[in-house]
Amino acid sequence: MIPAMFEYHRPADVKSAVSLLQEHGDEARVLAGGHSLIPMMKLRMAAVEHLVDIQDIEELRESKVSGDTVHIGAMVTQHELINNASLAKAAPLIREASLQIADPQVRYVGTIGGNVANGDPANDMPGLMQCLDATYALSGPSGERTVKAREFYESAFMTACEDDEILTSIAFPATTAGFAYEKQKRKIGDYATAAAAVLITMGGKTCTAASIAMTNLSDTPVWSEAAGAALVGTNCGDADIAAAVAAALNDTDPTEDSRGPVEFKRHVAGVIVRRAIERALSRA
Amino acid sequence: MSKMHLKLKVNGEEKELLAEPRELLIHVLRERLDITGPHIGCETSHCGACTLEMNGKSVKSCTVFAAQANGAEITTIEGLAEPGTMNVLQNAFREHHGLQCGFCTPGMITRAHRLLQEIPNPTEEEVRHGMAGNLCRCTGYQNIVKSILAAASEMNAAKEAAE
Amino acid sequence: MNDLTPTSEERSAKLKGLGHSRKRVEDARFTQGKGNYVDDIKLPGMLFGDFVRSPYAHARVKSINVEAALALPGVIAVLTAKDLEPLNLHWMPTLAGDKQMVLADGKVLFQGQEVAFVIAEDRYINADAIDLVEVEYEELPVITDPFKAMEPDAVVLREDLAGQTTGAHGERRHHNHIFLWESGDKEATEDVINSADVVAEEMVYYHRTHPCPLETCGSVASMDKVNGKLTVWGTFQAPHVVRTVASLLSGIEEHNIRIVSPDIGGGFGNKVGVYPGYVCSIVASIVTGKPVKWVEDRMDNLMATAFARDYWMKGKISATKDGKITGLQCHVTADHGAFDACADPTKFPAGFMNICTGSYDIPVAYLGVDGVYTNKAPGGVAYRCSFRVTEAAYFIERMIEVLAIELGMDAAELRAKNFIRKDQFPYQSALGWEYDSGDYHTAWTKALNAVGYKDLRKEQSERVAAFNRGETRSLLGIGLCHFTEIVGAGPVKNCDILGMGMFDSCEIRIHPTGSAIARLGTISQGQGHATTFAQILASEIGLPADSITIEEGDTDTAPYGLGTYGSRSTPVAGAAAAMAGRKIRAKAQMIAAYLLEVHDNDVEWDIDRFAVKGAPEKFKTMAEIAYASYNQAVPGVEPGLEAVSYYDPPNMTYPFGAYVCVMEIDVDTGVHEIRQFYALDDCGTRINPMIIEGQVHGGLTEALAIAMGQEIAYDEIGNVKTGTLMDFFIPTAWETPHYTTDFTETPSPHHPIGAKGVGESPNVGGVPAFSNAVHDAFRAFGLRHAHMPHDQWRIWKIANDLGMHG
User: Fold this and answer.
1) Which 99-128 residues of chain A touch chain C by CB within 8 A?
2) What is the spatial order of strands in the sheet that C615-621 belongs to?
C-alpha cells in the first residue's frame, strides 16, 4: 500500500493555505490528522496532486469556552478533546463521544476539523455537532463564512465546504443538558453500526428541549428534528420515547455493509437511540 | 517530483535526509535509518505494530508521511532504554510472558510506555482501553495487561522510594 | 560431602528443565526491537518485487502490456507467465498434489491472483509501475458456492484439467470436483442410523477464515552467480521442505540452496505453503543477479495467501433413547478455491478430519469429503490446528449439542455418558485412529466443578423465566466443549509432505566447557522453542538450559526436518531432542565410568552427573565429562560429545481438554459479553507451564475471533469483502476476556518424555466452546443450529428468526 506522488505544502497561516487551495483547485486536499485521507491515498482510492498540511497553523489549535459558547479550532485532536477539563464541563457529550472514536493512537492525531469536514457519514463528530447545533467557520478566498452543521452535509463525502475553503473552527453553545453518546460497533477501531447523540433538558418534569442525531445510518449524519420534537413538552414517558425513536428511525436510511443488512441496522438504531435517550434523561 | 530535505530527531539523534514527501514515516525509519524495531502489520492504522512516539504522542507511523514528520522528535523501541539494556516495561514483558512471536512487541511496549506516562497507576480496564490500538495475534493480551500493570507498580514503588 | 554440596532439588532447579516456568531467552531481543524478521533483511543492491493482481475472480487474460511500466525509471523487469514458461515455472506443484499458477496463464481464477511480477529499485517505484501495467480481461461467470460449482452446467473453472477424470486423490466425478475421500464403514453406519432410536441431523458450516499472523508473508532471494549458490530468507514454517521444492523446481542442486527462516512474526499455518511470491522472488534474483525482496501487504495476504476452513459438514448422529451414541455419519463439501493447495500430509486430502468422532466412544462411523473448486483463493491451511482437526472438533461438538436437544438431555451429561473411558486406552476409533492416552471423565468433572456448572444452569433457567416475564433482554449461554486433538504428524509410514516423511530431527554438540548447541528441523514462530527445547535437553543431559543454545531455521546448519505446524514440534522434534540427549548420555556414561575407573554398568545417572552406584560421593558431572571427552583418550570411545537423532514417532499424540464459556447476549443488539472462560488442557507432560498458559490464552483469542466474527467473505462476483483489518475481525485487548486456565496431566505412553503438544488445542476447543455458548443461550427458545461467525447481526438474526423482537 504505497501512495502515488504528490506535492507537499505546509502553509503557516490560513491565508496561505487558502491560496494554495485556490491555486490547485480540486487537485489539492487539506491534510489534518490524515487517518482518513492517508489510508485512501495508500490504497490509491484518493488521487491527490497537492497535499496542504495545516499542522503549522497555530490558530487552528486553539479552543476556548467564552461565556455560553464553546470554540474549538479545527486542528484540536480527539485526545485533547478528551483531556480538556473546561470542555468536559461545558460539553461533556464531546468527551463521552471522543472516547468511543477509533483507538488511542488515532485519537492523538485525529482532529475534530478533519472528522467533521471529511463528510464521511461513518464519522462520529458530524452527528455530534448536529446534535449540539454547532456552526462551522469556513475560510475561503473571499473571507470567512459560517455554515450550520445541520446544513453542512449534502451526501457521502459531499459537503458545503468548497474546494478552496478550509474549515477553521467550530462553535456551539455550552450545554448543561442531560447527554449521551451511545455507539454500537464491532470492535475498537470500527465505525458505528449505529450511534446516537442525545441532549435533553428538563424543566421540572417536562422536557423543554431535546436534540437527537445519529451516525452512520444514512449517507449523511442525521439530525432528527422530529425525534426531538416528539419529546419536547412531554414528561418523556415510555410512549413519548417510543414516539421519538420512531421519528428518528423515520429519518434514517441505512445501507447494508459488512456490519449487517438494513433490517438489522434499523433495529439496532432504534435500540441505540432509545438507550441514548434514557441515559441522557437519567442525567437531565 | 522533487525530494525534500527532512530533519528528524530520532531517539535523541539528529537525522537529516532527502526523501519524497509521500514516503511513509515507517519506511523512512526502517529502510533509510535502519531502525527496524517498529514493524509493518496492516498498513491501514489498525494493528499498531508501527507505533512510535512522535512529539510526545503515540503514533502509527504507517499513516504518517515523512513530510508531516519533518522537524519532529521521534522515539522508537530502540530509544526506550540504553542499547543492550531493558527498562522496567521491557523487563516486565519478559517476566510475565507478555510476548510470543515478538512482532507486535516493539509497538506494544512503546505504546505502553506513553500510557504509563499519562496514567501512572492504571486499572486493568484503563490498560485494556489504552492498549486497544495495538493488536497481538499470539498472547490473547492477558499477559500483556499483566506485564503493564506489573511495570506500573514497579515504577510507582520506585518513585515512592525516591521521594 | 559437606554442607556446601547442593541438594538434589537445588541441582535440579539449576537446570531449569522440564516443568520449570523458565523465562524466555527470545525476549531480550524482541523487547528491544532487535528481532530479525524477513522485512528487516537488507542486502546491498537489493531490488523489490511485487505483483499486479487480478481485480476479477474469474476472467480470461486477453493481453498484458508492460511497456509503460518498463519505461518508468527504476523498473528493472516485469515478469509474466510467458517469461516463466520456458523455465517451466509458470505453474508450480501444490502440497496437495494439484498445481497452481505462479502467474496468470491465460486466465485468472480468484480475486487477487498474481498476474505479473514487477521488479524495481524500491517499493515506491514498484507501486507506481504496477499501476502502469495494462491488463485486458474478459470477465467470466463466477462461482463462489461449492454446491453451485458441482451443478452439471456449472462453468468449467480449471480448463487445464479438461478430460482428467482422475486427480491426485482418485476419481473426479465433475469438472469442478477435486476428490472424494472416505473413511470408515459407510453401509454399517447407515444401517445403524436407519434403525436407531434417535437421530439428530444437521448441516454445520465452518466458514472460511484466515490465519492472518501480524507479519505477512515475504522472502528475500539472493542468487550468488559467482558461487552458484542461492540463499532465500523467508517466512517459512518448513524451511527444509522449501529447499527440496526449490531444488526440484529450479534444477539447482540442493546443496547449492540455503533456506533461512529468520524470526517469524506468527505463522498459524499461513507460512506452511509455497506461494507465487517466493517463486517469483527467486526467479527474479536468478534473472537479475541481484537480491530481490518480496513482502506482501495485508490485503494481498488476506485476499491471496492461504485461507482456512470453508467446510460444509452435513452430519447424522444416532443414539439410544437414554443417550448412548450408536453411530456417526459426516459428509463434507470442502471449498478449496481455485487450486487445491491444502497443506495436508499427502495421503490425507482432508487432513485428519476423520478424528471427527471426537472424545466419544462411537462404535461405527463414516466420513466422506468432496473437495471442490470455486473462484476463491487457494489454501486450506491448518490455522492453528492440526490438519482439519478444528473442523472435526467443531462438527462433533455441535452434533453432540444437537443430539442433546433431540434427546432433551443436558449436554454435559450426554458427553460424560459417551466419553471413551480411561481403561479403553489405547483406543481404536471407528475411523481408524489409535488414541494414545486420556482421562476424559476426570477432566470433565474437574471443569464442571470449577465453573459451578449446576449453579450456572440454575441461573440460566431463572434468566429464561425472567426474560419470558419481560424483566430482562439479556440471555445467558453456557458453552461446553470437550475436544480431542490429534497432533504430532507423524509416523513416516502414514504421513509425508511431497514424499518427505514427517519425522523430525535434533543434533547436539556439547562444548568442552560444559555448554551446548542444539539444532532442530523445526522453526519457532513465537512458541519459544529456544526456551523449551533447551529445557527438554537440560533434563536429559544435565546441563543447565541456560547453557544450551537452540538454533533452527537455517538449512545449511540444521538437520533435515519437516518444520513447525500441526503442533508437531514438541511431539516430534521434542522427542528427537530427548532421544539425541539420551545418545549423549549413553556416551557420557562410558566416559564417566572410565574416569571413575569402574565398569559402565556400575555408574548411574543422577540429575546432572554419573555417580558410582552405592557411592554417590564418587561422580563426574556432565560438565566434567564434556571436558574429558575433548581432552582424554578414552579407549574405544571417539573423542567429542555429539549426537543426532531423527525421530519417527510410532503414533500421533492426542491432547485433550475441557472448556466452558459463560456468555451474556443482548437479544436486541446481538452484542455479547464473555463473563467467564475456563480452559482445562491436558497436553501430557508439561515442559514449561508459563509458555503453555500463554499458548492457551493466544489460541483462545484466535478462537474467539473465529467464532464471533472473523471471516473471509465474498460477494456473488467473487470480491473479497474482508480485505483489511477494519472488516477482518481481530479482537483488541478490549474485546478479549480474561481466561482461567487449568490442567490435568496424562502423559503420552509412546513419547520419550510423555509430552503431547498444546499450541493448537485452545483454537480447536475454543471455537466450539464460544459457538456453543451462543447456541446454548437460545436453546430454551428453540434454536438448534446457526452458522458461524456469530457476529452481532447474525446473533441478532437468531433472535429475530425466533420471534424474540416482538
Assistant:
1) 103
2) C603-606, C609-612, C615-621
Q: Are strands C500-501 and A50-53 parallel, antiparallel or unpaired?
A: unpaired
Domains of chain B: 4-79 (3.10.20.30), 88-162 (1.10.150.120)
**Span C478-484, mean pLDDT?**
98
| Cβ contact, residue pair A264, C793, below 8 Å | yes
In this predicted model, what pLDDT tens digit does every residue of A10-55 receive, in sequence order? 999 999 999 999 999 999 999 999 999 999 999 999 889 999 999 9
Residue C506 has pLDDT above 70, yes or no: yes
**C-beta atoms of C128 and A4 within 8 A:** yes
Class of domain A58-173: alpha beta
The chains in contact with chain C, meaning 3 or more Cβ pairs closer than 8 Å, are: A, B
Convert the pLDDT of each residue in B8-47 to its tens digit.
999 999 999 999 999 999 999 999 999 999 999 999 999 9
By C-alpha distance, the chain B residue nearest A11 is B68
* Alpha carbons B89 and B81: distance in angstroms, whole number: 10
Q: What domains appear along chain C, each with residue ranges and CATH number?
A: 10-37+504-647 (3.30.365.10), 42-140+215-265+271-304 (3.90.1170.50), 308-489+652-801 (3.30.365.10)
CA–CA gap between residue A149 and residue A153 (Å, rounded): 7
CATH: 3.30.43.10, 3.40.50.410, 2.40.170.20, 1.10.1140.10. Which one for A7-53?
A: 3.30.43.10
Subunits close to A (at least 3 CB pairs below 8 A): B, C
- Do C349 and C179 meet the contact criterion of CB atoms below 8 Å apart? yes
How many other CB atoms sit within 10 Å of the CB of residue C545? 25
Q: How large is the ipTM? A: 0.98
Summarize the confidence of residues A111-115 as an average pLDDT.
97
Distance CA A255, CA A261 (A): 7
Give the pLDDT band (50/70/90) at residue C452.
very high
Residue C567 pLDDT:
81
Residue A124 near residue A276, CB atoms below 8 Å: no
Please give the CATH architecture assigned to the domain spanning A178-283: 2-Layer Sandwich (3.30)
Phi, psi dihedral angles at C93 (to 5 degrees): -70, 145
Catalytic pick among C237, C329, C535, C710: C237
Question: Residue C729 in contact with residue C791, Cβ under 8 Å?
Answer: yes
Instruction: Tell me C40's DSSP state.
Output: G
Q: Do A3 and B22 touch (CB under 8 A)?
A: yes
Count of CB pairs separated by less than 8 Å, A with C: 66
Show me where the domains of chain A are located. 7-53, 58-173, 178-283
Angle between helices C529-541 and C575-596 (to 10 degrees): 30
pLDDT, position B96: 98
Evaluate if residue C616 carries a pLDDT over 60: yes
What cell was used for A255? Answer: 445501507
